[in-house]
């Protein structure tokens, strides 16, 4: 018969081993946990989230627009909206098809302010374009605040291979592991 103390140690050892395995999987395969790509979809609008640092997001949005997945683009986020707008126009997107929401500073605000605009314009679906490592939290946040609107995720894949990652990029990727549960606890945005 196993004593209660030995049994607790055995359970603790198993839990610790599972935790180490999970941490290893999260470290070596972040794209499997953080990236959500809905696949080909059509919608009323493409929403490009600000940030990313390398401007891969507006490039991806222009690519999708030119594939005729949506007739309009909404740029959301304070700070780099004008740069993103210029990138889109340079990629051939008509200025009249680009709308800007420049008040939001967080993913939560991106969702809240963009959803308000979608509702005012009676739009029912949107494709969210953001960096792959941000796509899970962004999609779930928009779904949380945009009840009744269908959202799709079509992230950019710039620097998808690990060999191209810089320290700064690693920092963005691994910060998502803190932000994702933070949004779950703080705002009720379930990541699953």
Give the CATH level 1 class of the largest domain: Alpha Beta
Percent of residues in β-strands: 5-15%
Sum up the overall morphology in one term. Answer: elongated
Chain oligomer state = single chain
Rg calc: 19 Å
Q: How do you describe this structure in short?
A:
The protein is of the alpha/beta class.
Helices, strands, pairings?
Layout (H helix, E strand, L loop, with lengths): L3 H25 L1 H5 L10 E5 L6 H11 L6 E4 L4 H10 L7 E4 L5 H14 L4 E5 L5 H11 L4 E4 L13 H21 L5
Helix pairs in contact: 3-4, 5-6
Q: What can you tell me about this protein's structure?
A:
The protein has 192 residues and is α/β, with parallel strands linked by helices. It has 2 domains: 34 residues; 152 residues, Rossmann fold. 51% of the residues lie in helices and 11% in strands. It contains 7 helices and 5 strands. Helix 3 crosses helix 4 and helix 5 crosses helix 6.
């Amino acid at each position: 018969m196993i004593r209660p103390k030995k049994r607790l140690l055995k359970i603790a050892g198993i839990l610790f081993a599972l935790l180490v395995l999970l941490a290893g999987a999260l470290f070596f395969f972040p794209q499997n946990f953080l990236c959500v790509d809905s696949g080909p979809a059509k919608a009323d609008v493409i929403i490009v989230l600000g940030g990313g640092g390398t401007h891969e997001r507006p490039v991806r949005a222009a690519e999708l627009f030119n594939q005729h997945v949506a007739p309009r683009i909404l740029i959301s986020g304070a700070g780099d909206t004008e740069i993103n707008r210029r990138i889109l126009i340079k990629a051939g997107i008509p200025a009249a098809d680009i709308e800007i929401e420049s008040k939001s500073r967080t993913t939560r605000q991106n969702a809240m302010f963009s959803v308000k605009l979608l509702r005012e314009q009676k739009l029912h679906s949107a494709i969210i374009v953001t960096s792959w490592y941000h796509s899970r939290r962004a999609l779930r946040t928009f779904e949380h605040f945009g009840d009744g609107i269908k959202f799709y995720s079509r992230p950019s894949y710039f620097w998808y291979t690990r060999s191209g990652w810089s320290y700064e990029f690693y920092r963005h990727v691994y910060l998502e592991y803190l932000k994702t549960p933070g949004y779950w606890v703080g705002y009720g945005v379930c990541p699953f």
